[in-house]
Write a structure and sequence with these properties.
Elements lengths: L1 H4 L2 H4 L10 H8 L2 H8 L5 H22 L5 H41 L2 H54 L14 H4 L11 H12 L3 E6 L6 H11 L2 E6 L6 H19 L12 H69 L3 H16 L5 H31 L1 H13 L1 H25 L4 E4 L2 E4 H22 L1 H7 L4 H19 L8 H14 L3 E11 L4 E11 L5 H21 L4 E6 L7 H11 L8 E7 L1 H8 L8 H5 L2 E4 L5 H11 L5 H11 L3 H18 L4 H24 L9 H15 L6 H12 L9 E2 L5 E2 H6 L2 H24 L4 H9 L8 H10 L3 H14 L18 E2 L4 E2 L1
Parallel strand pairs: 1-8, 1-9, 2-7, 7-8
Antiparallel strand pairs: 3-4, 5-6, 10-11, 12-13
Helix pairs in contact: 4-7, 5-7, 6-7, 11-20, 11-21, 12-19, 14-19, 16-17, 25-26, 26-27, 26-34, 27-28, 28-29, 28-32, 30-32, 32-34, 32-35, 34-35
Length: 907
Amino acid sequence: MEAALTEPETERLLGKRHGVTWGTVFQRMETETYHRYATIRCPSTALDEAEEKLDEIQDKLERAADETPWDWRLVCSLILFGTLALLVFGGPLALLVALVVAAAVMFTLVWRGIAAWFNLRQCLAAGALGIAWLVQRFEVGVCAVRWGEDLQAEGTGRVVPQLVLHMLGEDPDSLFIPDDYDWGLRAPRAPGYVVENGARRQLERKLSHIEDGTIAVCGPRGAGKTTLLEQCVKKAGFGVIVQAPATYTPHDFLLSLSVRLCEKYMRDEGYAPPEFTRLSPARRLLRRVRSQAKRLGRWSSFAVPAAALLVLGLSASVRSLYTQYAASVADFVRAHAGSIRDDAMDIWQGHAVVASITVVIAGIAWWQARGAAWLPRLLGRLWVRGSEVLGGLLPWGSAATVLLDGQIRQQILHLYRTQQEALIQTAGYAGGLAIVWWLLRLTRDTGVEFPLGRWHVSLEKVFRPLAAAAGTYLLLYLINNPQTHTLLSDPENPLRLAGIITGVLLSKAGGWSPRPEEPELVTQCRNHLYRLQTIQQSTHGLTTGGAAQILSLGTNHTTSVSTVPPNYPELVEEFRDLLKRIAAEKVGRGKTVVIAIDEVDRLGTDSQALAFLREIKAILGVPLVHYLISVAEDVGAAFVRRGLPHRDVTDSSLDDIIHVQPSTLKESSAILVKRSQRLKDPHVMLAHALSGGILRDLLRYGLQLRETQDKTQSYELTHISRHLILEELAETFAGFRTLLSKQHWTHDTSDILASFRTLCGYLRDPCPCTQAEVLHTLKQFAFHSHGPRPDTPAADGEPNTAARQELTSDARELIDEASAYAYFSLTLLDIFSTEGLERRTQLAAEQGPDGDPERLADARQELGISPYSARLMIDTIRKAWSLSLGPTTNSPTPPSPVNCSRHNRTR
């Protein structure tokens, strides 16, 4: 029970409601009902059988002990310790002799029928039963542990959480107990919390079914269009996403898109885009020289000492080799050089006609091969293969000469005959050091990293110095050891080492190849960036003159050439040509090309967005390229009704359209639960209703639930929802009051602004003792449209018909919108601020579609279309939830009495 109560999911619920504590739950679990309910889920059949068998062995042991007057424990202990003493001090032979003597004594006792034999036999039987009892007792312990684990997992592990939920009463899921830090809610744009939805699956299907085209992504602001475009660009083989703010002209937009395209392609191909800095040429040259000098200095600090050590160590062997073979090589070269010179002179003088014809044909063939790639490729292949073969043979051949060296063999035989034991010891110790060194290197190269407290330990950093120290110690041991020192001091060893080093260098040289030439398309992108982002100017000067002792006459001619930035048509043509070549290359590699244009819906009105599409229409329709454009719902509606009755730019610019609808309650639940495990169904339902399924607002309300809980220090959804809804209502009314302040007001209608100010003040900073009055006033304002003609509330909440008649149509419409939003907020208060949400949700669902919680989000969306149609929808929702359709005196009251420190009174 303690283990079940300390589970995080159960422990966090303790103390959150009255009467649900550690002690009360523990006391309830100790009752016979819950004890039986927990243990019946885990039958202890194996444990019961083991205990029964243990009882049987215990009974047999007691009967065997009662049949002998001797103490069987003492007798068995003496026999056991005596046997061990003989084995330890006398050895196996003494134990064998003792067993033979004991057998003879036993036979004599049995043959004569002495009672000591029967007592001894009973003691040995009791000892055997004692050992069986110990084994069975261990088996009982194992079965008990297994049953305890099953009881914790399937018994108390399931019963205790159910009991805690039962003791919490109605709506246990409405308790909001947040974590210390919900990363998913605090980082709305974090990439690890993206959830698949219908719009993304539909867009991926369309992209897979068409080879190229332009697809518009439309939907309300905050519905997730930008996230959808970013995910598609990330998944594509090559993608670019650009923003289209309202201040961009089409020329500037296309200029920015061209720059992004070139930079993206160059980075994908492994080339850095050119950097255009404000530094002077002299400073850039100085910085480049300093960087090259630093790199050269670091290289030289390793290369020069290494070369000096190699030259110092191998100079004597190389000189001796040169002295031995230099004369023979020189004679060979002189002989062949003379033969070649004689043949050339014969050809020159015309004595070798066939050779002359052969040379002419060879010259023609060489000239014809100037444009062929097979010859350089053949030479390069011969160089690589020859270097690999020679580089592999030289080290092994140099090492194999050790086996053919008679002097080394004689030294090894001499050491084996004279110092056999020392040689074997040296070989074993050196082999052990070599194994240790190899194991350390193997561990170093595993690349394993693991956290250790506050540190992050890397095996590579730990074992690298250890492997170096082991290798150094092995080398020093071989050098200082007398046996190995004799073998290392052979005069041919430096030459063998030179052969090994030469072979390794040849192998590395065979694998070297010059850096490939920059691809033509990368060069084109680089040149395009220079043309778009720089102004290139070239100046040519010529000075001529004649000089005399007194008079000098000269002329100076200067020519300046400057590039002209491309105009819009030329920029469109260059962009289409470049994108077409990039797309052909990427698609040839099996990749897709996606160009995403985001934020077109921020260009203002739908006419401005259509004008922007009309301007950039020239860059659309590039073969093998998918364009994704986020547009407003108005543009999407214009595409859907294409040809009815007029045509516009969407008919020829867009090939298809994707509607990003607000998320459903199921999708909202998946999004919020993935970001925070503490948000349960009631909290998701509240956030979904307030946001209307708009993704951006959904995440904002999910975070506001956490903020409101921290502000109120309450875990109950009834308290949290009340504060959250009233705060949102206060901010919305403040916005309406700002809009109303721009209307025309008279002395008779100014009370409307005063009523808004009073109501905003109550809602923004509610006083506990006036909460009932605030809710009453809110109800009067929310229901003021109830009846044949809505009236405007005065400061006391009563309708003011005269003031209503003097209002302008804009002001009257704003008041109706504020009233409809207050009606919606009041409905949320009636639903979420009253206890028994789960029960009432089930009852509302039985009333039909209007009782579905999804309808609350639909009503929130309808408020953005028309307050009058939204009010009708809210009426149907209130009917399904059994809420009143008119102002009443009863209202959701606070769950418990509150103290008002501001007015020093209690309500």
